[in-house]
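Summary for the steering committee. The consortium agreed at its last meeting that each partner would contribute one worked example illustrating the joint modelling workflow. Our contribution is presented below. We chose a case with several input lines so that the handling of multiple components could be demonstrated. No manual editing was applied between input and output; the record is shown as generated.
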Amino acid sequence: MIAAKASYFARTALGGMWRDPFVHVIAIASLAIALVGFGLARIAGAQIDALVSALGGEVELTVYLKDGTPAEEVKKLEAALAQRTGGVARTVSPAEALGRLSEQLGPQGQALTELGANPLPWSVEVTLPPQLRDLASLQALAQTLRALTFVEAVDYGADALERLAALSKGLKLASVVAFAIVFLTTIVVVSATLQLAIYSRREEIEIQKLVGATNRFVRAPFLLEGMVQGLLSAVLATLALWALVTWAAPRAAGMLGFLALPKGSQLMSTRLMVELLLLGLAMGLSGSVVAVRRFLRV
Amino acid sequence: MIQMFHVTKAFGNDPPTLMDINLDIQKGEFVFLTGPSGAGKTTLLKLVFLAERATRGQVLVSGRNVARLRESGIPYLRRNIGVVFQDFKLLPNRSVAENVGFALDVIGTPRELVRQKALKILKRVGLEHKANVLPPKLSGGEQQRVVIARALVNDPAILLADEPTGNLDPALTVEIMDLLCDVNARGTTVVVATHDASLIERYHKRTLRLERGTLVSEERGAKAALLMVQG
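What follows is the complete predicted structure of the assembly.
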């Protein structure tokens, strides 16, 4: 009985789409455009994350120690930092630090020789593993280190990282808001097309009810229609995105060579395709649920 | 099979369409429901298959009080009641067999069985050869026979027919009435709403007469027809 009903729903839903193709094509196109927008936002978001991660990799955490810190404490701290972070820690003596500064200043570095004593402190530089390069982890680590007795200051390029993280967050938020608007608009379009389908099949619905169809039975083909619309639009959006990134990625890589963008095929991950499919189904189903609830009086 | 106790039906603030109706239709009976237009015949039939609910009183179908039936129970009640409409209610873009099979589709009957049962019932109403034809290509009598086939395909215990011969010429009227009598002879309870006195005289069945929403008489054959003409 279940198989017979499923077969009936499929035939009714596909038959309805076949008999009235124009409105369904509009709904599928609208859904596909929304999904392409979602796909592009996801690809752009992933690239920004990769960029933040890459730039984060160049940021080192430097722990400046107080004057008079015993050498054995410096060594202990170096070992402890390497162990705790899983990264590479290296002690920089005041002499080495002064040498670097002098080198950076160039000819003006000669002035440093005028100093009676080296004012620079002992420090430990830590290159962190990728999982600790995000802003939150760095902030937490810095806070812990500042509480230690011999630590004077901790530096990890907070300003630059915070700005980059804020940029990433802002772009993601903007894409979520933009997508929410497109999502709602698309649901309205899908529900409007199904409203037309319900109207054109009102006689059939009336007879179904008179011969003993349950409300669920009457509604099921319309819900299925919405899901089929979502499925077809997801396939269409995947193909369109594939074509778009294949065409656009090499051109973008040419223009932004320093960012080492991945190839078009790498941008279209399996995960993204599954997301498009599920989202398409969810949007189609949401539109049909709205239409059935609002317009199908059974 | 169908019982009504003090049933009243009113729409909004209008005077009641049906007032204090009491009736008892036995299993396997053939009953005419007659009266002038607007007497409440269609409304009374609608109360049986719950297209409308009684404002007051109790309606029992197969011993079950349908006034208390929840919305979700209505489809299951209707599967046991075949309804024939004066305006046919056939889908013009579906074949005759598909229209008949519609009543089986909604209860989840497998597709092959739907076709098989539809053809069997079409044979019974003499339309097997028109199974693949679209309804608009059929005559009025043929369309009404398709509607009867659709109403019977589920083997319902009750068949309600609202002016089933209202749009038909005398020859086709007899054809449809003979078919309904045949259905009744096989055990189905049949209720026919009509204002055609010649039918009532010819078929000599129990006749319930409604006037202005009230059940005014209960007669058979010629006497019922006479009362109708006088009324």
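The two ends of chain B are 29 Å apart (CA to CA). Residues 165 and 173 of chain B are 5 Å apart (CA to CA).
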